[in-house]
Amino acid sequence: MALPYTGLRMIDFTQLEQGPAGTQVLADYGVDVIKVERMDIGEIGRRQQPQINGMSYFWMSINRNKRCLSVDIRTQEGRDIIYRLVKDADIVASNFRPNVMERLGFGYEKLKEINPRIIWAAASGYGMTGPYEKRGGQDLLAQAMGGLAGMTGDRNGLPTITGTWIADYLGAMLFAQGIMAALAAREQTGEGQVVESSLLNAMIASHIQENSAVLNAGTKFERTKHGVGHPNSGPTYALYECKDGKWWALNAGSGVRTDPIENLSNALEIEPSLADDERFRERRMGEEAADALRGILVKAFKKYTRDEIEQRFNEHNIPPGPVYELDEMFEDPQVIHNDMVVEMEHEAYGNIKVTGFPVKLSDTPPTVRSASATVGQHNEEVLREFGYSDAEISALQDAEIVGSENLKRAQSAAAD
Fold it and tell me: What is the 3-state secondary structure (H, E, C) of the chain?
């Protein structure tokens, strides 16, 4: 069964998360991704913690279904190898700082001379041009400058950063989306083009609705009072601590067949009913009423464990919202049903579990076809495909233009 992008090839210079997570999307759906790395040590993401035998679990999670070529691109011979690969490639991807690819000899204008159909994709911190083009981009900085941190967290506390590298991940998904759009455009025009995405733009786009309200209505989105889920919401869209110290995310405003406040009162056995208090009838109640309602709900949630609240909410058709720690999340029956954990057998590190595929296709679903590669694992294989003879490969290895990691591994195994 052919995957959607079978037959397409990418030369991938990306590193860390924003780039590799995006190129993995293309690899999962069939693009032959050839990852270009430094010899011996590979890209810097391989050294992130935690590790197994010196290999980063983080790195393995975003580099499956790729082949790895280790080559010294500082040499003319190394650059010539890349140029030969580009002739038969569809995409070249990178997430270096602006102008680094040009300095390496792999800018768009240069590669377009070799292959006019090439799609040259660049992920960056702030954009490839402009006043910040020389700045180094990073997830924390993008969350701060992109407005997300400023509108997140307790009003009386600090701006809050998300618990994961959300700018990197959203930036990666937009990176993949842009490449896919460019591939579709090439079907119409026959020509390649430049694709740009950035961490800053990803963060700005993440609050697309709020942006419209700010730009058109002058709305202010202050950080919420303690525990409230969104600056534009109140105590019925918030977090509450349960009797057992676990937490619950309350959304009593949608998916409820009956009156939300009355239903919530029944589920938590609040007496007198909240529905009898005119202060709580409006979703956008005043701050005094909101504070009073939150105080009532804090006490009500403390009467029950999280499991008891889940049972009660299900009985009253209120959307369930247990706040999971990550290890709990993987035990949820819907997460299991969605196949959001997949296993891959790694020849060097054994069985590795990674995140599954978030998007499902009925006829051409993505699969794990290969685990993340060791440094230079596909050197000989890739070079032979592009016409290098065994003698030429040996000469390149002897001159330390390309890595000889497979040879080293074979020699090490023989010595053992």
Answer: CCCCCCCCEEEECCCCCHHHHHHHHHHHCCCEEEEEECCCCCCHHHHCCCEECCEEHHHHHCCCCEEEEEECCCCHHHHHHHHHHHHCCCEEEECCCCCHHHHHCCCHHHHHHHCCCCEEEEEECCCCCCCCCCCCCCHHHHHHHCCCHHHCCECCCCCCCCCCCHHHHHHHHHHHHHHHHHHHHHHHHCCCCEEEEEHHHHHHHHCHHHHHHHHHHCCCCCCECCCECCCCCCCCEEEEECCCCCEEEEECCCCCCCCHHHHHHHHHCCCCCHHHCHHHCCCCCCHHHHHHHHHHHHHHHCCCCHHHHHHHHHHCCCCCCECCCHHHHCCCHHHHHCCCEEEEEECCCEEEEEECCCCCCCCCCCCCCCCCCCCCCCHHHHHHHCCCCHHHHHHHHHCCCECCHHHHHHHHHHHC
Q: What is the pLDDT of residues 272-329, one digit of tens each?
A: 999 898 888 776 678 899 899 999 999 999 999 999 999 999 999 898 899 999 999 9
Are the C-beta atoms of 355 and 24 separated by less than 8 Å?
no
Q: Does the pTM exceed 0.70?
A: yes
Strands 91-94 and 9-12: parallel
